[in-house]
Amino acid sequence: MTLRLAELSEENLPAVIAIPPAVGEKAYVAPVLHSIALAYVTPSAWPRVIMDDDTVVGFVMANWDPDNEIPEFRGGIWRINIADEAKGRGVGRFAVEQVAAEARRRGYDQITVLWDPASDGPEQFYLKMGFRKQGELGGETVGVLDL
Ligand SMILES: CC(C)(COP(=O)(O)OP(=O)(O)OC[C@H]1O[C@@H](n2cnc3c(N)ncnc32)[C@H](O)[C@@H]1OP(=O)(O)O)[C@@H](O)C(=O)NCCC(=O)NCCS
Known about the structure:
By secondary structure, this protein is an alpha+beta fold. 24% of the residues lie in helices and 33% in strands. It has four helices and seven strands; from the N terminus they run E-H-H-E-E-E-H-E-H-E-E. The protein has helices at residues 13-17, 32-40, 91-105, 123-128; strands at residues 3-6, 45-52, 55-64, 75-82, 110-115, 132-137, 140-146. It starts with a strand and ends with a strand. The mean pLDDT is 97. It binds coenzyme A.
């Protein structure tokens, strides 16, 4: 695989919004359509498309808001959605690595992520990526990755 990040475009939008979950489907992450709408009204949001050559394989959204009064919201991963056919092939890992690299470029020494603590949620993925649990916020587990 030759993975890279791309900005959202008219060309890749149809494939990006087709990544699960669909709108209305119950899941541990929001539909990409909702995330893109949120990015439109959130200047600090950093939405990126994950490409394998010319194929859309995922979506990742970070948020860079270093002055936020809530430390957990100052910088980190907001959303990761990997296409079903691309799961288990390192695309999620690539997304985390790319957010970490962007955070370093911006001068951060750690990033955060919040996840649903359900046993079939993404907790094991984030722990494997090196995040350590640091309490909870609004019923979600807070994970911190030192850079
Ligand atoms: C969770 C998710 C992002 C993982 O992406 P992925 O591309 O399948 O993960 P990767 O292939 O990069 O896996 C990286 C490592 O994590 C492990 N891993 C991934 N998902 C896992 C899971 N659910 N349970 C345990 N380990 C998991 C992999 O085995 C791999 O380990 P290895 O390096 O030792 O082989 C993806 O499955 C997904 O989009 N899930 C639905 C949406 C979601 O939950 N997003 C996160 C919330 S914001």
